[in-house]
Amino acid sequence: MRILVFALLMGLAATGCNEKMQQATNDAGDATTAMIPNTLTAEEQQEGWKLLFDGKSMNQWRNFQSESTGQSWKVDDGSIVLVTAITDGKSRAIDGGDIITKEAYENFDFKIDWMIKECGNSGIMWGVQEGDFEKPYHTGPEMQILDNTCHPDAKIHMHRAGDLYDLIPCSEETVKPAGQWNSARIRMDQGKGTFWLNGVQVVSFTMFDDQWKAMVADSKFKQWPAFGTFRKGHICLQDHSDPVRFRNIKIREL
User: Fold this and answer.
1) Mind listing the pLDDT tens digit for each residue in 67-112?
2) Pairwise CA distance, residues 225 & 55, whole Å
3) How confident is the model at residue 1 (pLDDT cuts 50, 70, 90)?
4) Which of 17, 19, 85, 201 is most buried, judged by most C-beta within 10 A?
5) What is the three-class DSSP state of 42?
6) Do the beta carbons of residue 196 and residue 202 sit within 8 Å?
7) Alpha carbon distance 141, 119 (integer Å)
8) How far apart are the C-alpha atoms of 98 and 121, rounded to whole Å?
């Protein structure tokens, strides 16, 4: 009888162990799926996220004030890449220019991974308008992309990686070094904005109120009266003449 009970207990233990191993395998599989670049998890799909880049085509992007995309923007190894060359001692994209989403967005949650080269500079803008506006930054606020270790802008308050450029600095520095992937997130909901960089909330703000207008009036953007006044617009990836990579670009409309 004791032998029978022992055998039953051992069998139950083995079954429980196998179930735990199977669950661990399933969990690992889910984690692996989540880590595949330029894909959506099952949870993201249920929440209404959509990809703005599938790792193969830039068909959801175009140049600012254009229906096409400059040849210096390429898809390479599952990333959107700005290719530059040294001309007259300076890095330049021969046929680049800022690129924008083909669609315009108002209330949204936006995620993107970026990698900047040493001493490089770029940015992510939203609320960008075309028409009579010469540059995206004449209308669209920016989340700064920067190598904080050696780009000259790193010496300027509110010009460092993750800052609401020239308006609000990060609450803490969470940026990874040049050559490594950084995960950024911008959420805009009824004029209330939030930035995350590498999983940490670093900036929060409210647009369109008196405090916002006062901040803009005290910034470099005061020379462009339409800056930060539009609730709906395009999302923009900046050509700042430095090599930069983007991937895992996704958005959820709120």
Assistant:
1) 999 999 999 999 999 999 988 888 899 999 999 999 999 999 999 9
2) 37
3) very low
4) 201
5) helix
6) yes
7) 22
8) 13
CB 142 within 8 A of CB 218: no
In terms of Cβ atoms closer than 10 Å to its own Cβ (0-12, 13-18, 19+), residue 242 is buried
How many whole angstroms from its chain centre is CA 79? 13
Distance CA 143, CA 156 (A): 15
Question: Could you tell me how far CA 67 lies from the centroid of its own chain?
Answer: 23
Question: Do 212 and 157 fall within a single domain?
Answer: yes
Structure confidence at residue 31 (pLDDT): 39
9 with 89, same domain? no
Domain holding 145, by residue range, is 40-253
Mean pLDDT within 45-52: 98
Bridge partners (DSSP) listed for residue 74: 81
End-to-end CA distance of the chain: 64
Q: Are residues 11 and 75 in the same domain?
A: no
How crowded is the C-beta side of 3, counted as CA atoms within 13 Å? 0
* Letter string b/e over residues 180-199, b meaning 16 or more CB atoms within 10 A of that residue's CB: eebebbbbbeeeebebbbbe
CATH at residue 94: 2.60.120.560
121 and 55 Cβ atoms separated by less than 8 Å: no
Closest CA to 231 of 120, 68, 108, 77: 108
54 and 6 co-located in one domain: no
Query: Is the same domain home to 144 and 163?
Result: yes
Question: How far apart are alpha carbons 231 and 254 in whole angstroms?
Answer: 13
148 with 163, same domain? yes
pLDDT higher than threshold 60 for residue 11: no
Domain tally, the chain = 2
